[in-house]
Amino acid sequence: ILLLYFIFLSLLKRFFEKNKLWKLKQDLNEMTRDILSYEQTEKDYSKLIKRLKFLVNYGWDLVFQDHKYQIRFEQESVTYAKNPFYLKKSAQSAEFRQRNSGLSGFYGDITSLTLKEASDIYAVLNQFYNEISVVSWLKLLDDWLYASEQEGGLWQFVQNDENPIKTQRFLLNLMESLYLFSRPDFLSSVEDYPTISRFNCRTSLKTTV
Length: 209
Known about the structure:
By secondary structure, the protein is mainly α. The protein contains 12 helices and 2 strands; from the N terminus they run αααβαααααααααβ.
């Protein structure tokens, strides 16, 4: 099982080494914008859709193994304790709040997930696949690609996706959660950055032994 774990995890690590998270999110933002416009875009989003499908299938594999076989790649267990170093909001400058905005301080890429969501990646994945089935997600991505290639097809597109912005948010959460899953050191890193976990929140992330 340990060998399979490293093989399975290495696939995701290689994916994010080849496809930077910031670039995936930028392309998704551009695709969403183009879909919501009436003008046909010249940009080809087929590669982005292929990469998103990889993540959808990978995330589903994690959820399936957890539900079907109780195989779960556990992160360190965490609890939230009262933060003795909490700096009251009245004493926080705008620069301070921006510098300490959740997980964005760790890698500069995590802007959608909260710290609490990031500490329970399986809950984020379950929410994703409870919204619609994995097959429906894959079909919806095909619909997105088709819509991006059609001029003035927004009305027809919203028949398949009534809320593209909500879909974009779900996809962002999927990207970020799997990115963090490919970085198993991220939870321990929380404790190494006191400006994030100790000074900006009423509760701090505390690793239990």
